[in-house]
């Protein structure tokens, strides 16, 4: 792949995401204002739906790579599923869509992606193998649907979801680059997603000028889930490595959900009891939380994910090691419990 064409492509995707976010913001100021309420973590009316710029920039990047470089970023089925997820999110941003219809669309998109992915390596989590047949595909659909909703749950303070996309996607690209033989270019989707999210993140960094919205949070979570399953099926990056990379979101969302369900709360309703939301109140702002999440990703999770990719036999112990301090923080910050 010509180096200069690649640089031009990534630069173009970044510029397009950045510019389109500004355009979407002008539209959203009239049609998609997020008005603060008792469950919000922001105080001022803020436009939402900026994640649409990530969607368009990523799809434009795929067109560029197909037409100019001659190499697709992702399969048509995965892209079609992403468009479906984004469309449902865009609809929900404009007006409430019943949860059952959102979930049905998410599962349909995930199933479409998994059933058309190449590769026959067994899907495994540490020492546990799900095989490579129908049960593995079922697990893959659940992983993608969970990752999709994970980013929806965790998109609650300025900069957090965009930052996590950049960290996880860029980290995966880096590990893929290291794991593949010299001269073989890694899958493009994670790197392209990281660049598109970075263009949006400039607008979303505290204090946010626009929110990602369901159109963006669903799309990025879906793509990361697809890449996790696709690289696992291809044998290039295991599911465990992805779970380590996304550990901040996986632990906070899962622990909070489990505690709310155990407490008999309506877990599907919006709330302000995630660990990151408690942390934002404790630290007096959103930026301090983002800085700490960035440090956790770069200094803790990425090195452990790299070690897990290098030594597959150590995957499960490394996953447990990666999650222990995150679980401690979730407990210490009272994740899943109402604010005092």
TrEMBL record:
Cofactor: Mg(2+)
One GO biological process term: lipopolysaccharide biosynthetic process
Listed InterPro entries: Glycosyl_transferase_4
Membrane topology recorded in Swiss-Prot or TrEMBL: Multi-pass membrane protein
Residue stretches spanning the membrane: 6-28, 72-91, 103-119, 125-148, 160-178, 184-203, 236-258, 293-310, 316-335
Keyword ATP-binding: no
Subcellular location, principal: membrane
GO molecular function: metal ion binding; phosphotransferase activity, for other substituted phosphate groups
Alphabetic keyword roster: Cell membrane, Magnesium, Membrane, Metal-binding, Transferase, Transmembrane, Transmembrane helix
Highest taxon listed in the record's lineage: Bacteria
A GO cellular component annotation in the UniProt record: plasma membrane
Residues that hold Mg(2+) according to the record: 152, 214
Protein name: Glycosyl transferase
Lineage of source species: Bacteria, Pseudomonadati, Pseudomonadota, Gammaproteobacteria, Methylococcales
């Amino acid at each position: 792949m010509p180096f200069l064409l690649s640089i031009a492509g990534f630069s173009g995707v970044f510029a397009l995401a950045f510019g389109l976010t500004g355009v979407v913001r002008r539209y959203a100021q009239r049609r998609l204002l997020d008005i603060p309420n008792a469950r919000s973590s922001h105080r001022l009316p803020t436009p939402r739906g900026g994640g649409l710029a990530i969607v368009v920039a990523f799809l434009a990047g795929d067109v560029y790579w197909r037409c100019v470089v001659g190499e697709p970023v992702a399969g048509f089925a995965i892209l079609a599923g992403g468009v479906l997820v984004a469309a449902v999110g865009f609809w929900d941003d404009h007006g409430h869509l019943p949860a059952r219809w959102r979930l049905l669309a998410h599962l349909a998109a995930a199933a479409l992606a998994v059933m058309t992915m190449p590769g026959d390596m067994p899907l495994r989590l540490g020492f546990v193998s799900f095989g490579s047949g129908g049960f593995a595909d079922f697990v893959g659909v659940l992983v993608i649907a969970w990752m999709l909703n994970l980013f929806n749950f965790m998109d609650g303070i300025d900069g957090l979801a965009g930052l996590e996309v950049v960290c996880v996607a860029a980290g995966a690209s880096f590990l893929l680059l290291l794991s593949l033989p010299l001269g073989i270019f890694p899958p493009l989707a994670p790197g392209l997603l990281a660049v598109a999210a970075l263009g949006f993140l400039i607008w979303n960094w505290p204090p946010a000028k626009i929110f990602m919205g369901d159109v963006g949070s669903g799309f990025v979570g879906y793509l990361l889930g697809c890449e996790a399953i696709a690289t696992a099926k291809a044998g290039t990056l295991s599911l465990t490595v992805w779970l380590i990379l996304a550990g901040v979101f996986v632990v906070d969302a899962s622990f909070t959900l489990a505690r709310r369900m155990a407490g008999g709360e309506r877990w599907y309703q919006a709330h302000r009891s995630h660990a990151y939301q408690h942390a934002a109140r404790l630290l007096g702002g959103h930026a301090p939380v983002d800085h700490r999440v960035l440090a956790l990703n770069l200094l803790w999770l990425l090195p452990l994910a790299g070690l897990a990719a290098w030594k597959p036999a150590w995957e499960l112990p490394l996953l447990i090691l990666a999650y222990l301090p995150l679980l401690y923080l979730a407990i210490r910050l009272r994740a899943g419990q109402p604010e005092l």
